[in-house]
Protein 1
Amino acid sequence: MTNSITDLAGSECIFIIGSNAAESHPIIMGEIYKAAEKGGTIIVVDPRRTAVAENAHIHLSIEPGTDIPLLAGMMRYIIDEGFYDREFVDARVDGFDDLKEFVAEWSVERAAEECRIPAAVIRNVARIYAEAAESAIVYCMGITQHACGSANVTALCDLAMLCGHVGTEHSGIYPLRGQNNVQGACDMGALPNVYPGYQDVSDHAIKAKFEGAWGRELSGSPGLTVTEMIRSAGREIRGLFIMAENPALSDPDVTHVAQSLASLDFLVVQDIFMTETAKFAHLVLPGGSFAEKTGTFTNTERRFQLVRKAVEPPGNAKDDFSILCLLGTAAGLDFSYTDPRDVMTEIARCAPAYGGVTYERLERQGLQWPCPHEEHPGTPYLHKGRFTRGKGLFVVPRHTPPQEMPDDEYPFYLSTGRMFAHYHTGTMTRRSPFLNRETEMAYAEMNPLDALGIGVGEGDTIRISTRRGSIIVAVRVTCRIASGSIFVPFHFTEARANVLTNPVLDPQAKTPEFKVCAARLEKVIDR
Amino acid sequence: MGGIICAETVTGIETMVEETKKLVQKFLAERESDGILGLRKGDWNIIQPHVFTLPEELDALVLDPKWPFAKLAMQILRTAPKEYRLAVICRGCDERAIFELFKRNQIEENRIQIIGIPCSSEQARLCLCERPYPTKLDVGDAVPGVDPFEDAGVKELLMGDDTRRMKRWAQVLKRCIKCYGCRNSCPICVCEPCKLENEVWVRRGSIPTEILSFHLIRAFHLSDSCVACGACQEACPVGIPLQSLQLSMRRALRERYDYIPGCDPVKKSPILGDFVDEPEKDRSIPEWVNTLRE
Amino acid sequence: MNLVRTICPYCGTGCGLLLRVVDGTAVATYPDREHPVARGHLCIKGWTAHEFIHHPDRLTSPLVKKGDSFKEISWDDAIKLAMDQLLGIAGKYGGDAVGGLSSAKCTNEENYLFQKMIRAGFHTNNVDHCARL
Ligand code: SF4
Ligand code: SF4
Ligand code: SF4
């Protein structure tokens, strides 16, 4: 996230694309409403009429997977009409000619046809976004979980730079992070290609620095991503250690994931519950929940925040810090930390961006990185005055349509996502009585016309099949979803939406295409 | 000390804090209660509710910001031993809420003591509070209340005919993300089980909530007991002006029945059980409702 | 009364919570009015964050798979087993035969230690988490 959450309240235009913030990030939605109260315009792009769309000034219900055509059409119009920020583009961004060449192919009319949105609406939205004094872009998994997810993000960055809507307090780009500490996990180098602080593993000088700090020789070649590790389990990957993740439910095409996990020579799972993944383990280690540990989480606005221990772990369970210290020591490493605080000191020492982070400074309100030294106040918004690479760069987003489109055999668009009361694989929320009460059963949202078409009503059961497998769920009839599409939340182990999903990945980010695949529906006759 | 309504706060906030500390000290010394619920400014200047039990903790006692205590006090007493007694540093709204909880048998009167403090006129303006003081002030001086109907935002919400009002309310209520924060924070929302959790009334598993069930059930249930503490509104992440939903009913109660919820620990709501004072049938819809129409 | 100021375990907004602890049990969650982002607001998940903590399904002992079921073992044996096996695999097939999935639910410190353990302990960069999912 380039800016801070509360900055949204001051934006004149908020362009929300592929995010149902009202259900997934409700508190951020509150800031967006504040902007609306002050007269700001809320524009929502989403194939579904989500709760966010319901409360927007303008809702563009585009065809699934046509984000790039829409954005290209908007940029074309903005450039043609001269609505872009010439000064900003000249002074701060390279590659404008490439962008111009790219959008030359995308007339507003062509975009309109692809997205099935009237050209006039696209023009209107483009003008509002470009002309507002400060416009912000908010996006989430609806942008990234596509085979062209990285290109989608690129297109959004291009749009923002084109209009000069970065580097000021109320503009910027807001990717909303799903999990509480995804930001932190990335920051801390839980990624195959970088050490903590996004330092490249294949850079010799950096590698040497970490070898010095950690006292071990390190590998200079980038590792495998989650999906790659799981795919090569049993072959290249023989032993796997999974800490508090549940790929058996969260990864695409879980039937294959299960086979992979079962074929490992040794699988260790550390978690707080016996998850679907833990069932495959040879060894299960009982970890600690957030309430049982001291440490830090980093939220989506790059804010380090203190997590404080409130209760003891149950029975013989241990907090994950203690377990890791035992494991590291057993692996022959010097893991003689007495307190998570010692770890933070080490992090600050080896990752310059977090150099000024200490627990004392986090106590009151946390601290937003970059924060290179102890006197640095933290960074509420990025790219003020200059970009990380000096000048920004327009990168041409290549449009790849969804890899699996509806056809005669599988005529429906299927997308997966979240609902407001549950969270990810439901490990925690489904054990929370109040949340589980809201929705105890797996369901699929479908349009009344489609429901009529296959002869089902609210609460009836249907079988959803794709080329990967099938699940049985209850029907929820709603006009929020367009005819021809269905939506299935993925929180439910008894009807795993990820049995259905297509495991194709975005070539750069390796994010699976959860938002579009083709499905077939049948009514299930009650026994 | 205090109790007389004057134009501005005479006692400065520092003096008030010092006086409150002295009072709390006395409570502790004389063992009038086992703990005192108030606000503590702890390490790193972090402010949060705290039950004071030791005199040496009192250095950290503060009175601001406003932090509703009535429901927390009730919850503390529930998990404490039977003989545990708690004193609570109460603003006007906290006291009113506690009085309503007495009437609902949610708090035993002999287990709670009230240390009454007034709000500043600035706070009263923020809360649109008609009575920014408890019935008995232990420190400081009261400031006059604010007429919420004079507020531009309230006027905007309540102005116009039914259709316009409904439209305006629907527009804001549609943002509801069903966090249950309003219910969780409201000191009067104590029903077990809560109707808002009943599937007959409130559809499960989807947002926004149905306006006519979720929000109006809450409004009806609190119509003669809302103490205008504003906790619901403060807890609402999407900025719905929930407190204003109750305003018309509060005014009706006051004008028709001379009844203000929470202003007396014993007097029951006129529309609850005691129908003696009921006005004639044709007058039960107050006329002033029509004066709000354009 | 013990109110512990901490952070919501669910989404990336990172709202501040106050957990009320009575006799070692988290019994209620309140919003933190001093939190810079949430400012006293929570969503339905935040308000109920205490509910799963003491759930009877919580794992309470290290477990080793014996046939189709799990048996409890001691921490000493569990740690030894984990490292014997994983280091054994690394010795036999090379470090790149070992992988680690860290967690977006765990703290920064834990993520740091995890990737350090995988990278330094096994000589591989096969470490990732579910950012993309
Ligand atoms: S409805 Fe709102 S203002 Fe009224 S008592 Fe409940 S929380 Fe206070
Ligand atoms: S606090 Fe606001 S958002 Fe939450 S349930 Fe109440 S009205 Fe809805
Ligand atoms: S309370 Fe809700 S919005 Fe806030 S961090 Fe938790 S899950 Fe996210």
Protein 2
Amino acid sequence: MTDVVVPETSKTDWTSDQEPRWCPGCGDYSILTAIQLMMPEMGLRREDTVFISGIGCAARFPYYMNTYGMHSIHGRSPAIATGLALARPDLNIFVVGGDGDMLSIGGNHLIHVLRRNVNLTILLFNNQIYGLTKGQYSPTSEIGKVTKSTPLGSLDEPFNPVSLALGAEASFVARTHDMDRQHMQEMIRQAHDHDGSALVEVFQNCNVFNDGAFGAITKKAHRAEMLIDLQAGQPVRFGPDLNKGVVLDPSGCATIVDVTPENEASVIVHDPSHPDPSLSFALSRLSSGPYEPTPVGVFRSVRRPDYAGEVSRQLANAQDTKGPGDLGKLLNSRPTWTV
Amino acid sequence: MTDTASAKTEVRQLDSVIVRFAGDSGDGMQLTGDRFSNASALFGNDLATLPEFPAEIRAPQGTLAGVSAFQLQVASHDITTPGDAPNVLVAMNPAALKKEVHRLEPGGTIIVNEDSFEERNLSKAGYAESPLDDHSLDAYQLFRVPMTTITKEVCKDLGVKPRDAERSKNFFALGLVSWLYHRPSDTTLDWIQTKFSRLPNVAAANTAAYKAGHAFGETAELFHVSYEVRPAQLPPGTYTNIDGNTALSWGLVAAGQLAKVPVFLGSYPITPASDILHELSKHKNFGVRTFQAEDEIAAVGSALGAAYGGNLAVTTTSGPGVALKGETIGLAVSLELPLLVIDIQRGGPSTGLPTKTEASDLMMAMYGRHGEAPLPIVAAYSAAQCFEAAIEAARIALKYRTPVILLSDGYLANGTEPWVLPDVDSLPDISVPFATDTNGVDDDGEPVFYPYLRDPVTLARPWAIPGTSGLMHRVGGIEKEDVTGNISYDPGNHQLMTDLRQAKIAGIADDIPATMTAGDIDDADLLVLGWGSTWGSITAGMKRARAEGHKVAHAHLTHLNPFPADLGDVLLRYPKVIVPEMNMGQLSKLVRAEYLVDAASVTKVMGQPYTAGEIYTAIVDALTGEEGGNR
Ligand code: SF4
């Protein structure tokens, strides 16, 4: 830890000796490869990097990274990672989990970690299904989903993870998908560089229980029409020749329009660093599922004090004002008498 | 101040006195009791306290549900309980009198705030007629004192509003009782000045009320006797009066210093454990990090994360919180990381009795996890001893890389007693090294780190924390292969790992003190086996029985898993064994199963600790053939 220069590494250095056990063709493989490939360029040391996960297919991730790692409890990874981040602000901590893990059983921890702004890079692999328990509907499955546990179709309104994160006061929220390595890497890089909690939703294909869930928007042929690439400082436009744009309708909702010279000026200019998340939230509401044009990219990126840093600051202040702890003094701090 | 009793008043010497203050939740009885305790402690008495308050913050005023009480015993000798039947009851309103009078010793003293015995309060308490007038209290010595009136009167010239003045009436009561028992006034008056330095009006009113109460005793010619309780001959040393939760918190701070690692507390507010979170959050200059989590599960989860990062990780809880933490404690067993789980037991099941004591989580601590998940259990036995218990629990957790459950309870948490301060330099070094180097070679002869290669003596695995180069490894809740820690579903490996986890905990028996014993160790006819906070009552109850010539021994467990190595021998040494517990017989079941000993269970779950009298009766019943039974 004392070397100033981070030694050069390769993908192999970041790859553990454990054979991944995902189903062949699972989207998790492409996310793993993207991360193992980008790690050498991130300027991180393996020993200072920790992957914490819960339970689920995605949660096997830490086993395959040659870093420190913990495969913990269903839903609890944000809480466990919070403790580690507070105890060890020097570490680079990644939290990995699926939609069941983070949004169902662990939903409470996720919203609280986001509002606290604990310095964590949170990767939410959203495949809209429970994989490891063999195919029940998840909190991101569309209404009417027919699964083993919902033979007549699911009845629950799904979560939109980006909207949820924005509502939970997240300081960084992004979305990407497992079919575009470069975009994934760019989102994860920005998330990691962000001070505080950063959530990246990754659309991930579960080819066994929910194959093609995102095909309508992530297939190469559909991307131009169906993915709205959010770029900071740029008008929100998409389409093969950027012929579509997003404007606010009179009621304040984000709406897709055909861009014309008349309305061109009213196309929203994306500003993820705006202190108010309202426009980002409006953008997150553009699509209610991966079958209509869906924004990807960084929705929000604002500066807020990192929680672990603030905790450390309080400790340092206490030591400055009270001096380092003295046990003898503490024991004598109440009225005493001598026999 | 012993010279303030007037010439007309006779002064009698007492070995001990038991006082019970009772009033409405808003009457400040806890504060009054606390101040009386502190003045007595600084005076040099031995003492023990029992605060009892309702779970509601402010139950409807004047009702039985709203009664808050504080009992204490002060003595000129070594005592271990807050006493059985009070000698004096101070009742600030009819409800307090109604609820508490049955506890009083025959012929005991009742001091009431006469002003509060008016129609509304009487009917709220369910009195058709005032008990002050209907001779129902003739068996007692009743003193009617217009506390509110006098307090308002003396505050009139201070510029304090009558409503505010009325709030000081508990200080009047304190002044009066302090006079009656020759308590020094300076301690209390100084405390008032410091505590209310920012509210000079309140300070003045409380001071005036205290002095008025004191003067009332002296001049009203109501009291013909006052009492002295001489300082106790305690072993030499510097003392402080301390409650269990503070002692426990300080023990945790000390444990961090002694282990040379930062303390991390992940906690969620719950009665009666919250005070540990409050206390530890004051000691950031010791490098103590406290985290108020979103729930009990996150609290223990964050602690486990901090343990993985190399901290002395602690989580505190009570009641239902213990159940919520079960899954994470199981993971800690599997990960073999040090984790301190502190359970301040309270009445259950469910919300149960949040502010009342019980010791009914022993089986939960022992077995409250799915799968085979053994872990060490340490139990504190007195308020002050919580300090030592915290250090001991931390020592075991760190050395054996295991979660440890430390059991305290509501009685220890809130009760106070004098504590002879330990010499800081004499406290044990409990530090353990982190792993810094690889510990094996792989098939290719390359150096590798095996996270589950155990210490041959302790069976503890290496604690390699993130940031250590070359030791990167993954841990998780799936069964791990012996040595490498890789995922393994191999049948033989699971048996081996289960055996190893069990053997690691069982082996701790060689690393803990022998069973603590007292009384007629060599020739007792009966052994009283206890654990936790019953220590004080058993000690006092046994003393009475032995004073009558009964041969009784007392064994007390500070470690409940594993049991001390000699416990089997101790149990089999005596013809009869009784096990009084504040539960339905949990320890008795454990020792019967483990040692095939006919240990008779004595039980009490009334939200209150055993009295010495109850233990005495259980002893005599057992010796005279009546089986120990339910209280
Ligand atoms: S079940 Fe689905 S998500 Fe899980 S490994 Fe298989 S393909 Fe991937």
